């Protein structure tokens, strides 16, 4: 039975195929299970959407989750997301083996919850499962935006309790730096003073340092959230960077060599200043996990030490400097919004996970209030002097 540009074919007792041509001139077909009235209703809906100029396709009913995953990876590559490698790994090892060959439109919330239970039984942490669920949610949203999927399931998230609590005090940072050679000591101190991420400091260039304006800039696209950032220099940061640049320039000055008259050599080449601020052998600082562990141990910071005296693990990590910087900035009177802007927090939820107010901070505040009340009470009971 034809209806304008569409018609219905009966395939079984309760199975019908509706056929139509969309606005792109592409023939589409869908299988509808139920009575003929159901097939007629669905065909009428498609033809109505076509008449309104809406994009209509039978693809959303047949596209596989694995195909949508390929679209996500392509999107990550096009936008240059640094997390593309992690996304590919999560798809390949966990999501694709379970959902890859399923029709995306048929995936339900109940099936996703079963997947969560299976991952938990396999020993995956709450944070790891949530990263996979976030990727799954992003996959459905991207498909919906591209009109490859009209209805997306609810993807539940697990409650995370991994609030970040590691902190350095100023004294601990100074002790740690005293056991690190240059420029690692400056590298660590800069992390404590700015709260910037490890890669942001590692990739910092002299072109981003403006001594005249007294600020350090990170260009758009070079940070984790792709936003640019400006950090006004404190006196301590200026001195740190000035010393580094002075040493870097001194290292590029050619040495005068005494040559034999009969020996002909080319004129000495003047080395150029390396573009990166923190370098070892003219290259950006790489991994220094072993050096970090040993320095933490020598500084008296908590570590796990084996029976042979070898330091197995430092219980403080470089990222703790970021949390510590947020805490120090708050103590110095910066508002939460200002701290988020200086350190590059894009969302309040991520900032809240740092929990920069510790129990010791609360105790100090209570003690200060008690002291203020005691001073006020003692001054109130003192007798007034007669003139």
- CATH fourth-tier homologous superfamily of the largest domain: Intergrase catalytic core
Q: Give the structural class.
A: alpha+beta
Spatial strand sequence of the major β-sheet: 1-2-3-4
Strand percent estimate: 5-15%
Rg estimate, integer Å: 31 Å
Structure description:
Helix content is 47%, strand content 11%. The protein has 387 residues and is of the alpha+beta class. A four-stranded antiparallel sheet has the order 1-2-3-4, with helices on one face. A three-stranded antiparallel sheet has the order 5-6-7. Helix 2 (65-79) packs antiparallel against helix 3 (84-99), helix 6 (170-178) runs antiparallel to helix 7 (184-194) and helix 7 crosses helix 11 (320-331). It is elongated, with a radius of gyration of 31 Å.
Topology of this structure?
Layout: E1 2-3, E2 6-12, E3 15-21, E4 27-33, H1 36-51, H2 65-79, H3 84-99, H4 109-121, H5 126-145, H6 170-178, H7 184-194, H8 198-202, E5 209-210, E6 215-218, E7 229-232, H9 235-252, E8 279-280, E9 283-284, H10 289-298, E10 303-305, E11 311-314, H11 320-331, H12 336-343, H13 348-352, H14 359-381
Antiparallel strand pairs: 1-2, 2-3, 3-4, 5-6, 6-7, 8-9, 10-11
Short structural description:
The protein is an alpha+beta fold and 387 residues long. The protein has 14 helices and eleven strands. The chain folds into three domains: 56 residues, no CATH class; 81 residues, DNA polymerase, domain 1, CATH 1.10.150; 168 residues, hpI Integrase, Chain A, CATH 1.10.443.
């Amino acid at each position: 039975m034809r209806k304008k540009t569409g018609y219905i074919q009966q395939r079984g007792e309760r199975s019908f195929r509706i056929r139509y041509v969309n606005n792109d001139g592409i023939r589409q077909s869908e299988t509808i299970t139920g009575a003929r009235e159901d097939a007629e209703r669905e065909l009428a809906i498609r033809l109505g959407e076509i008449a309104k100029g809406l994009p209509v396709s039978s693809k959303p009913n047949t596209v596989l989750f694995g195909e949508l995953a390929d679209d996500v990876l392509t999107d990550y590559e096009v936008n240059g997301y640094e997390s593309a490698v992690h996304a590919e790994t999560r798809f390949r090892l966990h999501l694709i083996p379970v959902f890859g060959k399923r029709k995306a439109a048929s995936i339900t919330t109940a099936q996703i919850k079963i997947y969560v239970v299976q991952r938990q039984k396999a020993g995956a942490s709450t944070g790891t499962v949530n990263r996979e669920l976030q990727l799954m949610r992003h996959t459905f949203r991207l498909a919906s935006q591209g009109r490859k999927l009209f209805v997306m399931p609810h993807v539940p998230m697990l409650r995370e309790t991994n609030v970040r609590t590691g902190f350095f005090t100023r004294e601990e940072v100074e002790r740690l730096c005293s056991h690190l050679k240059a420029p690692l000591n400056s590298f660590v101190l800069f992390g404590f003073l700015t709260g910037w991420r490890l890669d942001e400091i590692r990739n910092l260039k002299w072109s981003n340092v403006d001594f005249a304006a007294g600020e350090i800039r990170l260009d758009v696209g070079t940070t984790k959230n792709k936003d640019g950032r400006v950090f006004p220099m404190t006196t301590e940061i200026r001195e740190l960077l000035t010393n580094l640049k002075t040493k870097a320039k001194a290292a590029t000055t050619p040495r005068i060599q005494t040559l034999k008259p009969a020996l002909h050599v080319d004129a000495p080449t003047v080395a150029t200043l390396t573009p990166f601020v923190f370098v070892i052998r003219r290259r950006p600082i790489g991994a220094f996990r072993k050096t970090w562990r040993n320095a933490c141990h020598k500084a008296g910071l908590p570590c796990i030490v084996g029976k042979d005296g070898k330091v197995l693990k430092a219980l403080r990590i470089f990222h703790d400097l970021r949390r510590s910087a947020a805490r120090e900035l708050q103590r110095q009177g910066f508002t939460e919004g200002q701290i988020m802007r200086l350190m590059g927090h894009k969302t309040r939820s991520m900032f809240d996970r740092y929990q920069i107010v510790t129990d010791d901070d609360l105790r100090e505040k209570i003690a200060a209030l008690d002291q203020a009340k005691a001073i006020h009470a003692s001054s109130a009971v003192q007798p007034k002097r007669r003139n």
